Amino acid sequence: MSLNISRKEPSPGVAAYPLSDGVPAGIGEGENLQHRLGALREFARTQHFARNEAVFQEGDRAQAICHVVSGAIRLCRHTEDGRRHIAEFALGGDLFGVVGGATQVFTAEAVSDVVLRVYPRVQFDRLSEREPGFRASVLSHLSSNLMSTQMHTFVLGCQSAKERLASFLVGLAARTGALENGRLELSMGRQDIADHLGLTIETICRAVTALKNAGLIAVPTTHRIELRKVDALIGLSGGRAIH
Amino acid sequence: MSLNISRKEPSPGVAAYPLSDGVPAGIGEGENLQHRLGALREFARTQHFARNEAVFQEGDRAQAICHVVSGAIRLCRHTEDGRRHIAEFALGGDLFGVVGGATQVFTAEAVSDVVLRVYPRVQFDRLSEREPGFRASVLSHLSSNLMSTQMHTFVLGCQSAKERLASFLVGLAARTGALENGRLELSMGRQDIADHLGLTIETICRAVTALKNAGLIAVPTTHRIELRKVDALIGLSGGRAIH
DNA sequence: CGCCCCTTTGACGTGAGTCAAGGGGGGTGG
DNA sequence: CCACCCCCCTTGACTCACGTCAAAGGGGCG
Question: Cβ contact (<8 Å) for A147 and B6?
Fold first, then answer.
């Protein structure tokens, strides 16, 4: 298995490099992890969380694999002195809680009202022991995740505020299919974006304004962004999307 | 899945599968991936690379899994406008080239003179298809990698220059066993450290000087650092090591 | 209608980047 | 064995992007 990183499929989660096409990919294996979880549907339960409610905390015993049905989740860490880092946003279709040891590595909080499909880890682990194809899917999922995280690392290490914002918007658009029509729905607030990109909320605001003034985006409402010059945005982002 | 993460050495792991729940962390598996590669020894060849020589380039066809016998490798990306990001340093005993699709995601270059043990990917893939335990090791390896990368993301997103340097030194010390005696050998130059931490070489120099003046480290030679106040360094690093 | 929370903008401060000018160590050649 | 040179590291002076602090808008909901 070449640990192939599925480099295509826009919508149902996983996509790591939405922008780089071309590579004959194929984690063989056929189905993605979300799909395969269907095998555990009898063990799953559906749960609702209100905006800002915590699903689990860093350090909690890891007991659940979560599938976002609707809404958005932020996976983050807090430091004693109040800094916060958001590693990732899980959107509709995405999984979280998969990676880690016996305890959760991140705190998971609802960005907006959220519906989750929750699978017991015990069953999940059991299935991956029994079913090689399932484990392959896990591997593929992990692999995608790793690529995304490495992308993020690059963004944080090398890019300016405007570039980071462009990377974020393009990445989000690629995940939600908004690259087609340019209409992007932001479920998270400016502070969340800031903590994801290693910037402050004021800098995010100024970067948004700058992109708007440059005609690259329009901002009809705070939580809706229209991509007006996608190519320019992709250029700014360095041609590599975050997520 | 428990995808146990910690790279913590003593790995007298027991679990039959890394996915088994609740097992005390520590790369279970008994054997790690490096060890399991022994099964492919008949296909391996040993190669030498001089300082700054490239092992492969980003975009090359991915054909090899590499095991660092001695020396150090940097895994990096370049942008058109000359920025460079070093995702990771592979030190003696580490593997690289495992993750990715049909093409390399990173450029790999020798930081110092290097000896590699190179395994053909074809054989590697074949083995992981045949041998579930092997695939489990791959998964475990990936998982470690992901945790490291997420750590790195946190460092880049939240920390100041001095904190980043402390994180780097502590992480490196933890990997090389230098936490014991505090004697740390830096195979990479200041520019490499800068590109790894998202800073400039001048900022690295100033941060080194600052830590030195604060008595946290001593710098007998450019490439040797002695950790004088490990606790303080760990405190600065936020208590979480990079690698 | 009005409150509250989030966002936006402005004015100013600062940590890191940039530019430039020395050092110093190790390898090479004489 | 010494001396020179080259490359990298270090330091200083100045700039600038981003952070901080403060205050003024909105927009949604009671």
Answer: no
